[in-house]
Amino acid sequence: MAELVNLKLTRRTLLKAGTAMTALPFLGIGAPSVLAQGLSKSPTKVLDFTTNADVAKAEQEGQLVFYCHENEAGTAGIMEGFNKDFPKIKTSYVRAQTGALYNKILSERSAGRFDVDAIQLSDLAPAVDFQKKGGYEFYVSPETSAYKADHLSSPAGSFFWTGVDPAGIAYNTDKVSSADAPKGWQDIVNPRWKGSISCKIVASGLQFVQWYTLRKIYGASFWREFAKLNPHAFDSRVQLFDRLAKGDDRITAIGEYPAYILFKGKGAKVAFVAPPDGLVATPLVVGAVNRAPHPEAAKLFVDWAMSKRGQAWYQSNPNLYYGSVRTDAPPMPTGVRLADLKLLYPADWDDYSANRDVFAKEWNGMLGL
Amino acid sequence: MEWYARPVIPAATKFVGSPISAQKLAGYGVAAVAAVLVLYPVFFLLQASLDVGDPLARPPTAYGLDNFSGLFQFPQILLNTLTVSLAAAVMALVFGFVMAWILTRTNVPGRRMFEQLMVVPYYLTPLLGALAWSLLGSPESGFINQVWRALGGQSYLININTPYGIAWVMALFEGSVAFVMIAAVMKSMDPSLEEASQVMGASRLRTMLHITLPLVIPGVLGAAIFVFAEMLGSFAVALVLGLPNRYYVVTTAIYQLVQQYPPKIQVAAAMGVSLFAVMFVMLFLYRRIVMAGSYVTITGKAFRPRVVDVGFLRYSLLGVCVLYLFAAVLMPLTTLLYASVQKIAVAFPTAENLTLANFRMAMSMDAVRSALGNSLLLGFGTATIGVVLMGLLAWLIYRSRLPGSGLIEYIVMFPQSVPRLVFAFGMMWAWVVFPIPIYGTLWLLLIAYLTVFLPLGVRTIAGVMLQIDKSLEECAQMCGASWAFRMRTVTVPLLMPGLVAAWLLLFISSIRELGASILLMGPHSKVITPSIVESWFGTSSELTATLALIQTLVVAIAMVVLVAVTRRVAAQQVD
User: Fold this and answer.
1) Superfamily for A3-164+282-334?
2) Among candidate residues A322, A251, A300, the one with its CA nearest the CA of residue A85
3) Model pTM?
4) Mutation choice for B interface testing from A229, A237, A239 by most B CBs within 10 A
């Protein structure tokens, strides 16, 4: 079944490997794994994608432990997709918001526990930090060529953007008339929403992106005005839309497009607004973890997630609906392509990461914590 | 749910045995296990609260008191905690007192049945109560408020997301202990004092206010302190009902602070240690009240609690009982069932809104497929090992004459003074660095449950142990029976009803446990109650209601089977 494909061992690959080796010693990353991966394996074709993982060995390992920021149903959905294609690999997962998940993995690793194979985060800041700490396994997937450099770790091989989660504004159509509905981001600070607007908690990666990008556009006073509305903050997008659908909140300042599609499908009376400035968007990044207990399964999962097959699953699962950044990605189930949307990302990811503490302090203060 | 005074052992009768007797070996062995279970995590908890270095570096890089001084930045949270705990404790005590009086001292119809039903809210768990009351009493979407508006009302009738709404649910579902404690006091009251009052011409109300109430005051005061301490550590209700209204108490604030990045673990630990200090003072006061012999109604004189004939009032009192159980049992369960068959839970669903998809989804989730099984397994493990461990500890503290048993009592009762969520941090740090890799496995949860339920198990078994006359054991000893033989042939058979009760209590407590489990479960060791909370965070309220219902149903079936088995075993023993 497996088909051998020539390995391209380029000077660039070796340079990347060399760069990665300098990042090492924190948390036990092993330099030999970089070279071993580069020199010893030829990609094989499995199903309709290519992998550098030893599939037989991955199946022999028999398990994949996945840490994921996504909600319970979404995380279970990702594992279900992988397990469908590789039924001999039993999957298990831990889900929590990105902040909590990152704390957990760091605590475990500082105590010498290496129980996780792959991790997905909804915030680039901890992903870059984890890369700096040598937490990721350096693994350049054969599927990497289908991604732009902007959508890969720098250097490529630590993590990639498995999807993008765009958010606009959403409101309850029973509680808000279309005339009163917000049209742009400035409208979310209108005093009329006092006590009836929602947002996410500080542990959310997307919330951090929204805070950062809108602060850049509208200035620091924008969020101070927002704080005066006494917003209700929740953990997940489903909670936000659950409350919106029932009228507990009239509007959510961070209406994620995937959740909008999900709830619209359930018959909820909600509407989505795409502000002219663009939808705030956060990359959802996946990488294999260094010193994983099931390293081949971890690599296989990364390849599967990067592949057209995995991306189609991510993009069409109702609990995920991520927009794919693959260069050859098909449209989302709604017919919209991610590339058709105007997205707002932080222009400077380093500056973004450096502002984490400022955000946490301001957001906690706003929520009374 | 009592703290018991240790019997005073006259010096002359203190145990003098061989240095390595079986009794000493077992006693000190089990004491050492208890000390490790409790003190090992406490060390890490205190260490974290004094850690002022990098929050992600372990062991700490710097020490100081900054985390404690930083607590003054959260005056509102401290005030919220006191408000909600106090309100919940007062409500629980009023419910407890009224229900205890009705069911122990009046001739209300069906009082025996109602007395049994009073413990059902405890089995239903505070989480289930909070989920149900959230569906019922949210200002906009609450079913009660939807009906209210449909009938022409304006705005909303009730708002469960207020401090008093939170306190109401806490009192209903976490306050049933107040009923148990006050009912025990009322049952042990000499009725001749009330009879004398009525003979002198006092009305029933006057008798209740001037005779009954003063007589039970010490017991009620003890219960008040105990219940207040319980409410301070409450987590699930404040999480589900407080979060939507930005209303944080110490436990929910701790949870939020440690979930974020960068984490504020040290501040959370300091908050937890401070809460521990308050709870410790509360429990110390309670213990002083109990040990001071304030139960002046308990005498050596034989009597039976007299049931007062309240005439037609008994039907009104019956209404009170029915109303209480309606609010605490029937309405929450019906609400969850109603929500679980809808796509979007509303008071007046249309045909297209009805669905069984929530049950299909629930059955495919880890929460049901593995977490429920893990919870049942852990329930069996905790109850079985716990009964042995805690039985031996109860014997060590209250029956043995081994030196140092008083100190063991304090150690064993320690987890009662710390919210489980806080204690779980200590356990997480303690066991993550433990050389044997139990972190992330069911073993860690088993250890955690055995630790946090030490006070509950020891108290329950001690309650029965103190009712058994020591002379039976002493008689066997005088006849030359060894310690092991005495335990096997005298103590354990006499304790059997208490051990069975403790087993069931530990079983159900393990399955409903949330505070410790939510931090300690791993990918292969998920358990049901935290999984339901995770579902509340990340899926719809309809699916969460479905999960809570499934949990209740499975636990109810397990309980019915277990009770039937234990009754059959008991009957066989009698035969």
Assistant:
1) Periplasmic binding protein-like II (3.40.190.10)
2) A300
3) 0.81
4) A239
